[in-house]
Amino acid sequence: MPKPVVPEELRRRRRPTRSGTVLSEELFVEAALRLLREHGSAGLTARRLGLVLDCDPSTLYRYFRGMDDLILAIGDRLIGQALDGWQPTGKWRPDLYDVGLRIHAAYVAHPQAAQLTASRVSGRANELAADEAVLDVLRTAGFPMPDTVRIYHAFIDQTLAFAALDAASLALPKQSLRADEDMWRSTYATLPASAYPRIAEAAPLLASRMITSAFPTALRMLLDGVATQRERLRGRDGR
Fold this sequence. Notes:
2 domains, mainly alpha, Arc Repressor Mutant, subunit A, Tetracycline Repressor, domain 2, single chain
């Protein structure tokens, strides 16, 4: 059974650690991101967090119900970073494109954390703010509620799916990542046209494109489809 989280006002009364640090949920999240970056998911433990923050490992449970709760807070932190400074322009397509790129970039900037959090739903403040923003952009653009939810679903899932995919690639050991990228030049580029005619003709473009993220292209394609649907709706309504 998860331990109860200590109320915020009681946490603030905690004395500093031996090194003079006043602990907070934010410090635990920052320390967790550092451990994930340096040691991967296997390195994220209460014991290591205690060593980094100079506190007893059990102190974690004054701020989080457990390690899974901490992981949800990490995901919410990434979304917060994505939306920091973002303001809607009132133009639905540029706004959604910008939000998608921001969320994707925030996750791939922390590949190990992205792998743990991209598929999770936290219900925390930043996640709720992002959901509200995307839904508002779509509703303000005039989409009916069923279409708004359907587009929101596709937009969010595609963004996070690409974030997880690209993060998994970036989290590979450098040697493995280089080997994967070289495969497009060392193998695909040398296949005989007699056996693989379509690969052979596409090989130069594959070698240059397949080592980059397809997310911007996929996002534009998704928004193309949304724009087509919007025009259809406006024609039907006589607007």
